[in-house]
Specification:
Chain lengths: 387, 224
């Protein structure tokens, strides 16, 4: 048990810190404090014995002992630790917020800003008189000792629990875009603010407006650091798994970079690397392809984890260098080439399998031979002599 | 539910933080725990009994009571208590001279009564827009501050006050006008400013409701 003075100091320190916006969810304080007999000494106050001597003490329906017992029952109402979760009913609504009855001495106050993670106009939009909700004690107003509570923080606790569950199951969620910056977009998922880096967006950053809903999957969920990172690309890739490795797909060039082009194939952006464009060496990529051009590409590989798809047109060239010289031909002959490619691959695989089988049987034969050697040398000699 | 249970549930035993007390309330405080003063409910009940007796006697003699409470959370319970017992009340800012300058205040109250009647007759609508607007403004202001005194012709025989710390000037006027006061005082109240102290939590509507209901009950039963 902590010494009384140090625990008081600790609590005073807690209450004098005014946290501005985000409150890291602290573990709810649950240790009940046993009353210490030295607590009683009020300066210049008559003792209990004296008070028992007052006229009218017998007329009161209870004794000091019964009062003390009742006090132990209500001990939790004396003090509320910052960070603890309390249930309260809405007592009244104001323009600045709501007054909540949490069983403390006075009503606790929940400012309008603390009512929801999304912007709220008036307190009456979210709460009505008499509603029972869970709040988190955020701070104590030093001036008039009013407890400030937050509905947002309590809901965040539940929201994070849901998010952790969903992340474990790798569920796709819908997030609403609330803001955008150079690095990506800020979304609201289950009431919690998250971030989608632009590298994980399947549509162009410029095309996204506030209020759009995007399908997202979880990348990072760190409740302690209040960090939620999501990926649009991962969610989209799962959706558009209509193609496998070796398929030919029609796509539109979404953007051209010095190292290759991003091709939009059915909602997913795949990378067509410059080395995979053609057998011929390409000095300037812009001379071969342009943004918006329709191409047929072959899927080389796909990485579901990172939502990446690798594409190639090299394999689809009937004669090497056609992509540069005669792209139309490549376009037309794409399916044919892919078929041929598949057949070649199949043949190669078959040949490889045959080789393997032959090798395996040789090894098996040798092993058999060794066994009989070990079994009886005479028999072997007999066989050999027979042969 | 016993009286103790009712008082405990209402949170009447909860006082202010120890740093915010008035040492004169020492004898009404039971203990100091977790940085908060706990009021002595045994004495609360004793004082409440005294108050009940006083109010009953007053009602038998045909006296009237005024309820006074200007804090934000006391406004509701005060108005409800006054309505229950057909008494007058002040739950907005106490205007200077309400008692000591009653002869003038009374005229304002008459004006309020007149404007109330105008509102009911529909006299307002017969007036030109500008005058109507001016009169409505006046009506709203009078209603806000003197609404609880509407119909009062003479000073009350007793005043029941809560939230003493913010109404010291009102209590001074009561003393000046020789009107006895019963005060629901918290650990930061001044017991010398009222004639009869009832120590209880004045920040909780439940606590005020309980004590005011007890007193209005005596007021109503006493007058029968």
């Amino acid at each position: 048990m902590l010494a009384k003075s140090s625990s008081l100091q600790q609590r005073r320190r807690c209450s004098s810190v005014t946290r501005a916006t985000r409150v890291t969810p602290l573990a709810a304080a649950t240790t009940p404090r046993a009353p210490v007999s030295s607590d009683f000494r009020i300066k210049n106050a008559p003792s209990i014995e004296e008070r028992k001597g007052y006229a009218g003490y017998d007329a009161v329906g209870f004794t000091y002992e019964e009062f003390e017992d009742a006090l132990l029952e209500h001990d939790g109402r004396l003090m509320f630790d910052i960070g603890s979760f309390v249930t309260g009913s809405v007592a009244s609504l104001d323009s600045r917020g709501a007054y909540i009855d949490i069983g403390a001495k006075a009503l606790a106050f929940c400012p309008t800003e603390e009512l929801s993670s999304t912007r709220v106009g008036r307190a009456s939009d979210v709460l009505q008189l008499g509603m029972l909700r869970e709040f988190q004690v955020v701070r104590e107003d030093r001036h008039d000792n009013v407890l400030i509570v937050s509905l947002k923080a309590a809901e965040a606790k539940i929201a994070w629990k849901r998010i952790r569950q969903m992340a474990a199951e790798d569920v796709t969620v819908m997030g609403k875009v609330s803001d955008a910056n150079r690095g990506g977009v800020i979304v609201n998922v289950e009431g919690v603010q998250g971030f989608v880096p632009s590298s994980h967006l399947s549509v162009a950053l410029a095309a996204i407006n506030n209020g759009d809903t995007l399908p997202l999957k979880f990348l990072e969920t760190d409740e302690i650091r209040q960090r939620l990172v999501l990926s649009n690309r991962r969610a989209k890739v799962e959706k558009a798994i209509t193609f496998k490795v070796g398929d030919v797909v029609v796509g539109t060039i979404a953007s051209v970079k010095p190292y290759g082009a991003f091709v939009d194939i059915g909602g997913v952006n795949g990378l067509l690397h410059i080395s995979q464009l053609s057998h011929e060496r390409i000095a300037n990529i812009n001379s071969v392809i342009s943004v918006g051009q329709q191409v047929k590409v072959m899927v080389l590989s796909q990485d579901q984890q990172r939502g990446r798809v690798s594409l190639s047109t090299k394999k689809l060239e009937p004669t090497p260098g056609d992509m540069v010289n005669n792209p139309q031909l490549v376009f037309e002959k794409a399916e044919m080439m892919a078929e041929a490619f598949k057949q070649r691959v199949a043949a190669a695989e078959a040949a490889a399998r045959a080789e393997e089988a032959k090798l395996a049987s040789e090894i098996a034969g040798q092993a058999l031979g060794e066994e009989s050697l070990a079994a009886g040398a005479s028999e072997e000699k007999a066989e050999a002599s027979e042969e | 539910m016993t009286e103790l249970q009712a008082l405990m549930k209402a949170g009447a035993f909860l006082g202010h933080r120890t740093s915010r007390w008035n040492p004169r309330m020492a004898k009404y405080i039971y203990a100091r725990r977790n940085g908060v003063h706990i009021l002595d409910l045994v004495q609360t009940v004793q004082c409440l009994d005294q108050a009940r007796a006083f109010v009953k006697k007053l009602a038998n003699q045909g006296g009237s009571v005024l309820f006074l409470g200007t804090s934000r959370h006391a406004a509701g319970p005060i108005m409800a208590a006054a309505a229950r017992s057909n008494s007058f009340y002040v739950n907005q800012r106490w205007l200077g001279g309400m008692f000591t300058n009653w002869s003038t205040m009374r005229l304002c109250v008459h004006r309020l009564t007149y404007l109330n009647q105008c509102g009911e007759d529909g006299t307002f609508t017969t007036l030109p827009k500008r005058e109507e607007a001016a009169l409505r403004r006046q009506h709203a202001r009078l209603k806000k501050y003197l609404g609880g005194l509407c119909g009062m012709e003479q000073l009350p025989n007793a005043v029941i006050v809560t939230g003493q710390s913010s109404d010291s000037h009102a209590l001074a006027e009561c003393r000046r006008s020789n009107i006895p006061t019963i005060g629901i005082l918290d650990s930061d109240g001044d017991p010398t400013s009222v004639d009869l102290v009832i120590p209880a939590n004045d920040d909780s509507a439940a606590s005020l409701d309980y004590i005011l209901t007890e007193l209005t009950y005596c007021l109503s039963t006493g007058s029968r």
